[in-house]
DNA sequence: CAAAGTTGGAAACAATTGTTTGAATATGGC
DNA sequence: GCCATATTCAAACAATTGTTTCCAACTTTG
């Protein structure tokens, strides 16, 4: 499409407004007026509002997948040498590190997380489809590694637990501002994102390694 | 406001559409045409779209808070007799049971959960404020009981962990349809809501009882 | 039965939405 | 210099939004 200043001004403004208010609640006029560009610029450079939304995501997810693939490459290479399986903690740790790393440059982890949360919760069917098609492969690679790291878990159980912890992370980090306000007000304790990740670690690990649920419906367990 | 058939037809239709597509993405014309009532009926009976949204929530949350208070009363009374503290599992169990119980009549747990998820994720400031003001007290009562059940947890840690598991539950149950599709397709296994709650139980308990995170910088031991 | 008040309905309201148009301006290659 | 292309801009577009108006139909009540 195009490269220069207008495009990034639009993207910078759009991602903030989207994160603050959602997609449907943010009009193109909101974006263009705040970005000080002409209204038609969005349709000119991106084609449509849908395409703009996808472009906002691509600017985060493209570098993320690149780095995450690289990090997994390195992790696999290291463990291929000493012949050991990659432990679950290391996988989770790697993912967390990559997630923290990518938006660090623009100091916008909060925006990134909020966008991810919106992608799941807003109806926007096209978005989920886009993300699935464009970035599904890296997620599949990760889950396959998790599978090898947790051979004791039935496949279905692991599937659900991964989504359980995904929910924890996205919910917490995407609602971070509101929660942080409450926490600071109630406990007079400032929480940084790194702080939260530190708190999340043992919880997520314990969640993944929780005992298996009792088998369904039958009154009699062994 | 009013009582008869039109009002409930609007509410029934609105909650389904809201759950499917979000608030901003659902127009009053969508609702009224599908409910086969006149467009003006919404503003006549509820006053505004905002008020309709709140009414949809109230229809779930009012009975929920009533029953939850009652269930907690009973739980407290039972444990006051034998002098023991209420264990965490029982608290979580009670909440889960109440959540499952309330919408069971209309077979709309999915809708209920999806609405809760939207309430958190959609910007809709008025909604969060409304829910907080209207139903904050029952949540505070619950957290106080959780506090007594987990005296080993620092207050801030407990606060965060409660929101961690809240995220798990809301995220999972509100995105249930999509996740269920994937799960059935990949593992040929049908998952009911009760099934999911069964899977959630050990995960949530383990998450709450996870070891404390290490203070800001140190190595880890299992 | 008739008056009063409540509910239902078609139409119009003003505001806002995403998108398109066509002319003006800047930019870059020759 | 000039031409072609790329970008910006103001204006208008058609569609949709929540809300209001005014009148008909109904139910209740005296």
Walk me through this protein's architecture.
- The structure is a homodimer of 222-residue chains.
- Chain A has 222 residues and is mainly alpha-helical.
- Chain A has 2 domains: 1-47, Arc Repressor Mutant, subunit A (Orthogonal Bundle), CATH 1.10.10.60; 58-209, Tetracycline Repressor, domain 2.
- Chain A has 10 helices and no strands.
- Chain A has helices at 5-21, 28-35, 40-45, 49-81, 88-101, 109-121, 125-149, 155-174, 176-187, 193-208.
- In chain A, α1 (5-21) crosses α2 (28-35) and α1 (5-21) packs across α6.
- Chain A is globular, with a radius of gyration of 20 Å.
- The mean pLDDT of chain A is 88.
- At the A-B interface, α6, α8, α9 and α10 of A face α6, α8, α9 and α10 of B.
- Chains A, B: It holds the Pfam family TetR_N.
- Chains A, B: Residues 4-64 form the HTH tetR-type domain.
- CATH topological fold name of the largest domain in chain A: Tetracycline Repressor, domain 2
Helix content, binned percent of chain A: over 70%
Report the principal-axis shape of chain A.
globular
Computed Rg of chain A: 20 Å
Oligomer: homodimer
CATH architecture of the largest domain in chain A: Orthogonal Bundle
The overall pLDDT of chain A, averaged over residues, is: 88
Largest sheet of chain A: none
How many domains of chain A, as an integer? 2
CA(first)-CA(last) distance of chain A? 63 Å
What fraction strand of chain A?
Answer: under 5%
The total strand number of chain A stands at 0
CATH superfamily of the largest domain in chain A: Tetracycline Repressor, domain 2
Largest interface, C-beta within 8 A: A-B, 58 and 58 residues
Order of helices and strands of chain A: HHHHHHHHHH
Structural class of chain A: mainly alpha
CATH class of the largest domain in chain A: Mainly Alpha
């Amino acid at each position: 499409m195009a490269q220069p200043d207008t495009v990034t001004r639009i993207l910078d403004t759009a991602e903030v407004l989207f994160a603050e208010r959602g997609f449907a609640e943010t009009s193109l006029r909101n974006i263009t007026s705040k970005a000080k560009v002409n209204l038609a610029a969005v349709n000119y450079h991106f084609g449509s509002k849908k395409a703009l939304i996808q472009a906002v995501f691509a600017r985060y997810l493209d570098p993320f997948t690149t780095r995450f693939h690289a990090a997994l490459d390195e992790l696999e290479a290291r463990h291929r040498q000493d012949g050991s399986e990659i432990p679950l903690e290391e996988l989770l740790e790697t993912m967390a590190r990559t997630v923290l790393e990518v938006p660090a440059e623009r100091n916008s982890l909060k925006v990134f997380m909020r966008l991810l949360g919106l992608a799941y919760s807003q109806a926007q069917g096209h978005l989920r489809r886009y993300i699935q098609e464009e970035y599904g492969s890296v997620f599949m690679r990760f889950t396959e590694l998790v599978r090898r790291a947790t051979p004791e878990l039935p496949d279905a159980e692991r599937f659900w637990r991964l989504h359980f912890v995904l929910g924890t992370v996205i919910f917490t980090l995407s609602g971070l501002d509101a929660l942080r306000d409450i926490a600071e007000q109630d406990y007079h304790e400032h929480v940084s994102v790194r702080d939260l990740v530190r708190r999340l670690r043992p919880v997520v690990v314990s969640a993944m390694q929780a005992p298996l649920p009792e088998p369904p419906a039958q009154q009699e367990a062994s």
